[in-house]
Amino acid sequence: MTDQVRVAAVQFATGTDLDENLATCLRMLDAAAAEGAELVVMPEFCNHLSVYDDQDHCRSVTVSLDGPWLGALARRSAEHSVYTSLTVTVPREGDRVTATNVLIDPRGELAATADKQMLMGNERAHLSAGAEVSPVANTAFGPVGVYSCMDGVTFEVPRTFAVRGARLLLNSLNSFALDEARLHIPVRAVENGVFVVAANKVGPLLPAEQVPVFSQALGVPPEALNGAGESQIVAPDGTVLAMAPRTGEAVVVADLDLSRVEPDRLRGRRPEVYGPLAQSQTSHPVSDLESEVVAGCIPSAQSSPELVAEAISAGASLVVLPELTPPPPSIPPGVLVVTTALRDNQHLGQVLSADGVVHEQAQIHHCDRHPGATRSGTEMSLYPTPLGDLAVIVGDDHRYPETFRLAAIAGAHLVAVCWQPEHRWECDLALVERAAENRISVAACGPPGPLAPTTLLDPPADSLWNPNRSSPYNGTINTPVSQRAEPDDELLIGKLHPGRAVNREVSKDTDLVGGRPWRASAALTAPLAQATATG
Length: 535
What we know:
Blueprint lengths: L3 E8 L6 H17 L4 E3 L13 H6 L7 H13 L2 E9 L5 E8 L5 E6 L21 E3 L2 E7 L7 H8 L4 E5 L6 H14 L2 E5 L2 E3 L6 H8 L7 E3 L3 E3 L5 E4 L6 E8 L6 H4 L25 E5 L6 H10 L4 E3 L15 E8 L2 E8 L2 E7 L27 E4 L7 H9 L4 E5 L5 H15 L2 E5 L9 E4 L22 E4 L7 E5 L8 E3 L2 E2 L16 H6 L2
Parallel strand pairs: 1-2, 2-3, 7-8, 8-9, 15-16, 16-17, 20-21, 21-22
Antiparallel strand pairs: 1-14, 3-4, 4-5, 6-7, 9-12, 10-11, 12-13, 15-25, 17-18, 18-19, 22-23, 23-24, 26-27
Helix pairs in contact: 1-3, 5-10, 9-10
């Protein structure tokens, strides 16, 4: 097994003619091979646009795994002696059709296939989602995971590959959303400590005659329905090594040293706590809430009683303090204060009201800052409040996407985070993604400093499938609304809308939490050694 590999992400447009699309794939494979690529990643739906007249039409434009369309690509891969990864639609038993990720090896043989787990919007009308854990592919440069588009908008599918030893993730996309490149692609690299190669489409994602219909139904301008490009290669620390432009065909190449993966990102996981992730049951957030909540975060622990009073005077009904900050001596009725404390070998998140401590949440994962916290929590619990059902996350639990997912599955509207992040990616990518992929409001408070970790994050008011938008479409699917304290700020006051957690659909029939790939998440609940052995 070699650690060194040159990879390429290629972006291009496809249409409704299978022969033309194959010719494009072959031409772009030639271009990538000419750049010395040993592995080439292509977009999703390479054989045909993902819009169909009916089920018969959908099935008529599929390509068989052993058929001539993929056979031609396999022969060209063998000619160049490269790995090729792409997503096509494949006929299955009955009239089922799947969006299937295909990895072809340098001999032109099928190295792995993986059916898409989470379907997006209109895809659900004609395609069937995968129902099993996708296999990890063994390659000359080690274990690899292949997935497509919506499977990378939530954390589960990429994580199942990482916990089973994948050092490199290959993501094929068919997306017009700008938050793919800004958020969803790089966060999958950094939260798992692996490399990611992602290839997106450019050009129209719909037949020309369908554009007005979709434009009106989605409430977005027609030009927004083009592929967003920005195919990219990302390092384990979140650094983007190469990125293609927003428009136009492109090949971007990078030389990877896979020994740079960071498996320590996964070693603190607690699979025995994650059981609900692999179960279908999901609690839906209650809907009877106030329309907005004023939250106050106080980075400076030095003068917190005075600043707490200032926050409350500004209307805050939720006040979040940095970890281990003593609570104020008195709390007015109707106000909740969140902090943490060490007691009985546990690090506890605490919610306090005028009646004292009303809720505690034990730290779930080990945290080097709190060596005395030798007793770890075994579940994520919620505290019901008039502001919404509240979860508290402490220590380094924020580094584990499973923690936030447990809160969302339990029906949380709102998460208070008392933290002390060490890396910029924790603030700029990971925490933002936790709010996005779970459609929850987040109030995070940490000590002042260059990372500026004190942040308020809110789900956007409009989902994608919304012709009556409250604001113009900004090009993203689900990027949270962010308010962030400056490094020297002592107080952050802002409004949150926890009631938006009730709407977890980012597009028609696409529920980020209820529609999560829970069957695939079985790999997340297995002990690390077992998960790796069965990958």
